């Protein structure tokens, strides 16, 4: 089992994870607010139906925002799992191989579950 990370580093990563989570939640809220405010007939005061291209653009924007929100929710789940690993004392350790995750990787992706070797293997196999 790799050496446990010291409390100061764990606190740094916990604050970083909470900051990222708050930013993502804010993004999701703003997307939701935009979606509620962006009614398709809001700008049409003439009483005529919207042009098909405008409808298609609105539909694309909605689908795109839903996709972003879905990805954001997935990242939040990974952040919550990383926060749990901090509490359990297993943060910074690959959940599959048990090897230490390099700090450079954790600084880039603080919610990383896997060391680079395992992540690359999973990507090749089409996993996660």
Notable characteristics:
single chain; 128 residues; mainly alpha; Four Helix Bundle (Hemerythrin (Met), subunit A); 66% helix; elongated
CATH architecture: Up-down Bundle
The fraction of residues in strands falls at: under 5%
Query: Which CATH class is shown?
Result: Mainly Alpha
- Low-confidence runs: 39-45
How far apart the termini lie comes to 24 Å
Q: Any idea what the radius of gyration is?
A: 21 Å
Short description:
This protein is 66% helix and 0% strand. With 128 residues, the protein is mainly α.
Secondary-structure topology with pairs:
Blueprint (H helix, E strand, L loop, with lengths): L6 H31 L14 H37 L14 H6 L7 H10 L3
Helix pairs in contact: 1-2
Description:
The chain is built from four helices and no strands. It is an all-alpha fold. The longest helix has 37 residues, at 52-88. Mean pLDDT is 84; it is low at 39-45. α1 packs antiparallel against α2 (52-88).
């Amino acid at each position: 089992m790799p050496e446990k990370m010291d409390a100061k580093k764990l606190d740094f990563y916990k604050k970083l994870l909470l900051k990222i989570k708050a930013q993502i939640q804010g993004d999701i809220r703003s997307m939701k607010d935009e979606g509620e405010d962006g009614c398709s007939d809001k700008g049409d005061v003439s009483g005529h139906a919207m042009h098909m291209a405008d409808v298609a653009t609105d539909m694309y924007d909605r689908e795109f925002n839903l996709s972003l929100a879905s990805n954001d929710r997935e990242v939040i789940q990974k952040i919550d799992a990383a926060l749990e690993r901090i509490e359990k004392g297993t943060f910074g350790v690959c959940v599959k191989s048990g090897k230490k995750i390099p700090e450079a990787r954790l600084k880039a992706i603080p919610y990383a579950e896997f060391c680079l070797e395992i992540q690359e293997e999973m990507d090749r196999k089409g996993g996660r």
